[in-house]
Amino acid sequence: MSDLTTLPDFDSLPGPSSDGLDGCAWGLFDRNGQTDQLGTLNLLTQEKVLDAAKREILCGQTVSLNWGLENPQYSGFMRMRLHHRIIDLSPSEVYASDDELSFCPQHGSHWDTPLHFAHQKSKKYYNGLSHQEFHLQNALHQGTRLWNDRGGICGRGILLDWASWAKEKNLPCHPIGRDEITVSQLEEVAKWQKTTFMPGDILLIRTGFIAWSTTATDDEKKRGSLEGTEYLGIEATRESCRWHWNHHFSAVVSDNVTYEVWPPRDVVLHEYFLAMWGMPVGKLWDMEKLAEVCRSLQRWSFFLTSAPLNVASGIGSPANAIALF
Length: 325
Description:
Mean pLDDT: 93
Strand order of the largest sheet: 1-13-11-5-7-9-10-4-12
Shape: globular
Order of helices and strands: HEEEEHHEHEHEHHEHEHEHEEE
InterPro entries: KFase/CYL (IPR007325), KFase_sf (IPR037175)
CATH topology: Glucose Oxidase, domain 1
GO molecular function: arylformamidase activity
CATH superfamily: Putative cyclase
Low-confidence stretches: none
Distance between the termini: 32 Å
Strand content: 15-25%
Number of strands: 13
CATH class: Alpha Beta
Family: Belongs to the Cyclase 1 superfamily.
Helix content: 10-25%
Protein name: Cyclase
Protein backbone atom coordinates (compact mmCIF):
# COMPACT_ATOMS: atom_id res chain seq x y z
CA MET A 1 0.00 0.00 0.00
CA SER A 2 1.33 3.43 -0.95
CA ASP A 3 1.50 6.27 1.52
CA LEU A 4 1.76 10.01 1.00
CA THR A 5 5.52 9.85 0.65
CA THR A 6 5.49 7.19 -2.07
CA LEU A 7 2.48 8.11 -4.20
CA PRO A 8 3.57 8.40 -7.83
CA ASP A 9 2.80 11.54 -9.76
CA PHE A 10 0.17 11.43 -12.48
CA ASP A 11 2.60 10.83 -15.33
CA SER A 12 4.05 7.84 -13.47
CA LEU A 13 0.70 6.08 -13.17
CA PRO A 14 0.17 3.17 -15.60
CA GLY A 15 -0.28 4.35 -19.16
CA PRO A 16 -2.79 3.28 -21.82
CA SER A 17 -3.68 -0.43 -21.87
CA SER A 18 -5.59 -2.59 -24.29
CA ASP A 19 -8.91 -1.71 -22.62
CA GLY A 20 -8.18 2.02 -22.63
CA LEU A 21 -7.12 2.47 -19.00
CA ASP A 22 -4.74 5.40 -18.62
CA GLY A 23 -3.54 7.16 -15.49
CA CYS A 24 -5.06 4.40 -13.40
CA ALA A 25 -4.43 3.85 -9.66
CA TRP A 26 -5.80 0.32 -9.42
CA GLY A 27 -3.76 -1.71 -6.96
CA LEU A 28 -2.00 1.32 -5.55
CA PHE A 29 -3.76 1.10 -2.18
CA ASP A 30 -4.05 -2.70 -2.00
CA ARG A 31 -2.71 -4.14 1.22
CA ASN A 32 -1.87 -7.63 2.53
CA GLY A 33 -3.34 -9.23 -0.56
CA GLN A 34 -6.67 -7.44 -0.10
CA THR A 35 -8.18 -5.49 -3.01
CA ASP A 36 -8.70 -1.91 -1.88
CA GLN A 37 -12.19 -0.40 -1.97
CA LEU A 38 -11.60 3.06 -0.48
CA GLY A 39 -9.41 4.71 -3.11
CA THR A 40 -8.14 8.16 -2.20
CA LEU A 41 -10.00 8.08 1.12
CA ASN A 42 -6.97 6.09 2.27
CA LEU A 43 -5.20 9.45 2.42
CA LEU A 44 -7.40 10.45 5.37
CA THR A 45 -5.34 8.64 7.98
CA GLN A 46 -5.96 9.03 11.70
CA GLU A 47 -2.88 11.23 11.89
CA LYS A 48 -4.19 13.43 9.09
CA VAL A 49 -7.61 13.79 10.70
CA LEU A 50 -6.15 14.61 14.11
CA ASP A 51 -3.77 17.18 12.63
CA ALA A 52 -6.63 18.79 10.69
CA ALA A 53 -8.80 19.02 13.79
CA LYS A 54 -5.99 20.70 15.75
CA ARG A 55 -5.23 23.16 12.94
CA GLU A 56 -8.74 24.04 11.82
CA ILE A 57 -11.15 23.98 14.79
CA LEU A 58 -10.27 27.29 16.41
CA CYS A 59 -13.42 29.32 17.14
CA GLY A 60 -16.25 26.77 17.25
CA GLN A 61 -18.34 28.19 14.39
CA THR A 62 -20.16 25.57 12.32
CA VAL A 63 -21.73 25.74 8.85
CA SER A 64 -24.10 23.24 7.25
CA LEU A 65 -23.24 22.43 3.64
CA ASN A 66 -26.56 20.76 2.83
CA TRP A 67 -28.97 22.33 0.35
CA GLY A 68 -32.63 21.77 1.28
CA LEU A 69 -33.73 18.28 0.23
CA GLU A 70 -36.44 19.81 -1.97
CA ASN A 71 -33.69 21.24 -4.21
CA PRO A 72 -33.05 21.49 -7.05
CA GLN A 73 -36.61 22.37 -7.94
CA TYR A 74 -36.44 20.50 -11.25
CA SER A 75 -34.64 17.18 -11.46
CA GLY A 76 -32.17 16.25 -14.17
CA PHE A 77 -30.76 12.87 -15.20
CA MET A 78 -34.15 11.20 -14.47
CA ARG A 79 -33.63 11.43 -10.71
CA MET A 80 -36.52 11.32 -8.28
CA ARG A 81 -37.23 14.54 -6.43
CA LEU A 82 -38.17 14.58 -2.77
CA HIS A 83 -41.57 13.26 -1.78
CA HIS A 84 -42.34 14.12 1.83
CA ARG A 85 -45.35 12.58 3.56
CA ILE A 86 -46.34 13.70 7.05
CA ILE A 87 -48.24 11.03 8.98
CA ASP A 88 -50.84 11.93 11.61
CA LEU A 89 -50.78 9.31 14.37
CA SER A 90 -53.80 10.69 16.24
CA PRO A 91 -56.24 8.07 14.79
CA SER A 92 -54.45 5.60 17.07
CA GLU A 93 -55.22 7.96 19.97
CA VAL A 94 -51.62 9.07 20.20
CA TYR A 95 -51.06 12.73 19.48
CA ALA A 96 -47.83 12.46 17.55
CA SER A 97 -46.52 12.58 14.00
CA ASP A 98 -44.11 10.66 11.78
CA ASP A 99 -42.92 11.34 8.29
CA GLU A 100 -41.72 9.39 5.26
CA LEU A 101 -39.17 10.52 2.68
CA SER A 102 -38.70 9.15 -0.83
CA PHE A 103 -35.99 10.62 -3.09
CA CYS A 104 -32.93 9.80 -5.15
CA PRO A 105 -29.85 10.21 -2.93
CA GLN A 106 -28.07 11.90 -5.84
CA HIS A 107 -30.74 14.52 -6.45
CA GLY A 108 -29.57 17.24 -4.05
CA SER A 109 -26.39 17.77 -2.02
CA HIS A 110 -24.73 14.39 -2.38
CA TRP A 111 -21.72 12.17 -2.78
CA ASP A 112 -21.04 9.86 -5.70
CA THR A 113 -19.23 6.69 -4.70
CA PRO A 114 -16.92 4.82 -7.11
CA LEU A 115 -19.90 2.57 -7.91
CA HIS A 116 -21.63 5.46 -9.68
CA PHE A 117 -19.60 5.66 -12.88
CA ALA A 118 -17.49 2.98 -14.58
CA HIS A 119 -14.60 3.31 -16.97
CA GLN A 120 -16.75 3.18 -20.06
CA LYS A 121 -14.57 1.21 -22.47
CA SER A 122 -13.66 -1.55 -20.01
CA LYS A 123 -17.07 -1.40 -18.23
CA LYS A 124 -15.21 -1.62 -14.92
CA TYR A 125 -15.49 0.30 -11.69
CA TYR A 126 -12.69 1.11 -9.25
CA ASN A 127 -10.02 -1.56 -8.92
CA GLY A 128 -11.44 -3.70 -11.70
CA LEU A 129 -14.95 -4.50 -10.49
CA SER A 130 -16.97 -5.29 -13.63
CA HIS A 131 -20.41 -3.83 -14.18
CA GLN A 132 -21.86 -7.33 -14.50
CA GLU A 133 -20.17 -8.55 -11.30
CA PHE A 134 -21.48 -5.59 -9.32
CA HIS A 135 -25.06 -6.10 -10.44
CA LEU A 136 -24.93 -9.84 -9.78
CA GLN A 137 -23.25 -9.61 -6.36
CA ASN A 138 -23.79 -5.99 -5.33
CA ALA A 139 -24.01 -6.62 -1.59
CA LEU A 140 -20.39 -7.81 -1.53
CA HIS A 141 -18.77 -4.71 -2.87
CA GLN A 142 -18.05 -1.05 -2.28
CA GLY A 143 -20.47 1.70 -1.47
CA THR A 144 -21.62 4.06 1.21
CA ARG A 145 -21.66 1.33 3.89
CA LEU A 146 -17.89 1.02 3.62
CA TRP A 147 -17.58 4.79 4.02
CA ASN A 148 -19.83 4.58 7.07
CA ASP A 149 -17.88 1.68 8.54
CA ARG A 150 -14.59 3.56 8.25
CA GLY A 151 -16.11 6.37 10.35
CA GLY A 152 -17.48 8.64 7.63
CA ILE A 153 -15.44 11.25 5.78
CA CYS A 154 -13.57 13.69 8.01
CA GLY A 155 -10.55 15.87 7.35
CA ARG A 156 -9.25 19.25 6.28
CA GLY A 157 -11.57 20.95 3.82
CA ILE A 158 -10.56 23.87 1.64
CA LEU A 159 -12.88 26.14 -0.32
CA LEU A 160 -11.80 27.64 -3.63
CA ASP A 161 -14.36 30.40 -4.09
CA TRP A 162 -14.06 30.63 -7.87
CA ALA A 163 -17.40 32.46 -8.17
CA SER A 164 -16.27 35.39 -6.00
CA TRP A 165 -12.88 35.50 -7.72
CA ALA A 166 -14.49 35.48 -11.17
CA LYS A 167 -16.86 38.29 -10.15
CA GLU A 168 -13.95 40.44 -8.99
CA LYS A 169 -12.12 39.72 -12.27
CA ASN A 170 -15.27 40.49 -14.32
CA LEU A 171 -15.18 37.03 -15.87
CA PRO A 172 -18.37 35.59 -17.39
CA CYS A 173 -20.23 33.01 -15.33
CA HIS A 174 -22.99 31.06 -17.07
CA PRO A 175 -24.02 28.12 -14.85
CA ILE A 176 -26.05 26.47 -17.63
CA GLY A 177 -23.53 27.15 -20.36
CA ARG A 178 -20.46 25.12 -21.25
CA ASP A 179 -17.91 27.51 -19.71
CA GLU A 180 -14.74 25.89 -18.41
CA ILE A 181 -13.05 26.61 -15.09
CA THR A 182 -9.39 25.91 -15.79
CA VAL A 183 -6.92 24.52 -13.29
CA SER A 184 -4.77 27.59 -13.84
CA GLN A 185 -7.74 29.65 -12.64
CA LEU A 186 -8.05 27.43 -9.58
CA GLU A 187 -4.40 28.10 -8.80
CA GLU A 188 -5.08 31.83 -9.14
CA VAL A 189 -8.04 31.55 -6.77
CA ALA A 190 -5.84 29.80 -4.21
CA LYS A 191 -3.26 32.60 -4.45
CA TRP A 192 -5.99 35.27 -4.23
CA GLN A 193 -7.26 33.67 -1.02
CA LYS A 194 -3.75 32.87 0.26
CA THR A 195 -4.84 29.24 0.53
CA THR A 196 -2.26 26.46 0.53
CA PHE A 197 -2.92 22.84 -0.42
CA MET A 198 -2.04 19.86 1.75
CA PRO A 199 -2.10 16.15 0.80
CA GLY A 200 -5.40 14.58 1.80
CA ASP A 201 -7.39 17.83 1.49
CA ILE A 202 -11.09 17.63 0.67
CA LEU A 203 -11.41 20.19 -2.13
CA LEU A 204 -14.60 22.28 -2.37
CA ILE A 205 -15.15 24.53 -5.41
CA ARG A 206 -17.86 27.20 -5.47
CA THR A 207 -18.96 27.85 -9.05
CA GLY A 208 -22.00 30.00 -8.18
CA PHE A 209 -24.60 27.48 -9.35
CA ILE A 210 -26.69 27.54 -6.17
CA ALA A 211 -26.49 31.34 -5.99
CA TRP A 212 -27.76 31.40 -9.60
CA SER A 213 -30.54 28.93 -8.74
CA THR A 214 -31.92 31.20 -6.02
CA THR A 215 -32.45 34.06 -8.49
CA ALA A 216 -33.12 32.18 -11.78
CA THR A 217 -36.56 32.30 -13.33
CA ASP A 218 -38.75 29.22 -13.41
CA ASP A 219 -38.08 28.81 -17.13
CA GLU A 220 -34.31 29.02 -16.56
CA LYS A 221 -34.49 26.37 -13.86
CA LYS A 222 -36.50 24.08 -16.13
CA ARG A 223 -34.01 24.62 -18.95
CA GLY A 224 -31.20 23.73 -16.54
CA SER A 225 -32.73 20.33 -15.85
CA LEU A 226 -33.35 19.14 -19.40
CA GLU A 227 -31.44 16.27 -20.97
CA GLY A 228 -28.59 17.69 -23.01
CA THR A 229 -28.18 20.78 -20.81
CA GLU A 230 -24.69 22.23 -20.72
CA TYR A 231 -23.14 23.06 -17.36
CA LEU A 232 -20.25 25.25 -16.33
CA GLY A 233 -17.59 23.17 -14.58
CA ILE A 234 -13.98 22.19 -14.16
CA GLU A 235 -12.09 21.66 -17.42
CA ALA A 236 -12.08 18.01 -18.48
CA THR A 237 -8.54 17.58 -19.78
CA ARG A 238 -5.48 15.49 -19.01
CA GLU A 239 -3.97 18.59 -17.44
CA SER A 240 -6.96 18.75 -15.11
CA CYS A 241 -6.44 15.08 -14.21
CA ARG A 242 -2.75 15.74 -13.60
CA TRP A 243 -3.52 18.75 -11.37
CA HIS A 244 -6.07 16.90 -9.26
CA TRP A 245 -3.98 13.75 -8.81
CA ASN A 246 -0.71 15.55 -8.08
CA HIS A 247 -2.36 17.56 -5.29
CA HIS A 248 -3.43 14.24 -3.73
CA PHE A 249 -6.93 15.34 -2.76
CA SER A 250 -8.88 12.73 -0.83
CA ALA A 251 -12.21 13.90 -2.32
CA VAL A 252 -13.57 16.73 -4.46
CA VAL A 253 -16.84 18.65 -4.19
CA SER A 254 -18.69 21.33 -6.16
CA ASP A 255 -21.88 23.33 -5.80
CA ASN A 256 -22.94 22.52 -9.37
CA VAL A 257 -24.59 19.54 -11.05
CA THR A 258 -21.63 17.69 -12.57
CA TYR A 259 -18.35 19.01 -11.07
CA GLU A 260 -16.70 18.84 -14.49
CA VAL A 261 -17.78 20.91 -17.48
CA TRP A 262 -20.70 19.16 -19.16
CA PRO A 263 -20.95 17.46 -21.50
CA PRO A 264 -17.32 16.27 -21.48
CA ARG A 265 -15.55 15.59 -24.74
CA ASP A 266 -12.26 13.70 -25.04
CA VAL A 267 -11.58 13.33 -21.31
CA VAL A 268 -14.22 12.42 -18.70
CA LEU A 269 -13.19 13.34 -15.15
CA HIS A 270 -15.81 10.97 -13.73
CA GLU A 271 -13.86 8.07 -15.24
CA TYR A 272 -10.58 9.15 -13.67
CA PHE A 273 -11.87 10.27 -10.28
CA LEU A 274 -14.42 7.55 -9.56
CA ALA A 275 -13.44 4.55 -11.65
CA MET A 276 -9.66 4.84 -11.82
CA TRP A 277 -8.80 6.51 -8.49
CA GLY A 278 -11.75 5.63 -6.26
CA MET A 279 -12.07 9.31 -5.33
CA PRO A 280 -15.44 10.50 -3.95
CA VAL A 281 -17.10 13.30 -5.90
CA GLY A 282 -19.59 15.59 -4.18
CA LYS A 283 -22.08 17.75 -6.05
CA LEU A 284 -24.70 20.40 -5.34
CA TRP A 285 -23.33 21.21 -1.90
CA ASP A 286 -24.55 24.53 -0.53
CA MET A 287 -21.46 26.73 -0.16
CA GLU A 288 -23.17 30.12 0.10
CA LYS A 289 -22.96 30.47 3.89
CA LEU A 290 -19.56 28.79 3.84
CA ALA A 291 -18.22 31.44 1.47
CA GLU A 292 -19.56 34.20 3.74
CA VAL A 293 -17.92 32.73 6.82
CA CYS A 294 -14.62 32.19 4.99
CA ARG A 295 -14.60 35.83 3.87
CA SER A 296 -15.48 36.97 7.40
CA LEU A 297 -12.71 34.92 9.01
CA GLN A 298 -10.31 35.45 6.10
CA ARG A 299 -9.45 31.79 5.95
CA TRP A 300 -10.71 29.23 3.48
CA SER A 301 -9.76 26.04 5.31
CA PHE A 302 -11.81 24.24 7.95
CA PHE A 303 -12.51 20.84 9.44
CA LEU A 304 -15.10 18.94 7.41
CA THR A 305 -17.30 16.08 8.56
CA SER A 306 -19.68 14.01 6.46
CA ALA A 307 -21.82 11.03 7.51
CA PRO A 308 -22.86 9.08 4.39
CA LEU A 309 -25.83 6.73 4.54
CA ASN A 310 -25.21 3.29 6.00
CA VAL A 311 -26.50 1.34 2.98
CA ALA A 312 -24.91 -1.83 1.62
CA SER A 313 -23.62 -1.12 -1.90
CA GLY A 314 -25.04 2.41 -1.69
CA ILE A 315 -24.14 4.22 -4.90
CA GLY A 316 -24.83 7.74 -3.67
CA SER A 317 -25.63 9.48 -0.41
CA PRO A 318 -26.84 12.83 0.85
CA ALA A 319 -23.81 14.83 1.94
CA ASN A 320 -24.81 15.26 5.60
CA ALA A 321 -21.82 17.59 5.77
CA ILE A 322 -20.72 20.26 8.24
CA ALA A 323 -17.73 22.63 8.20
CA LEU A 324 -16.18 23.50 11.58
CA PHE A 325 -13.96 26.53 12.15
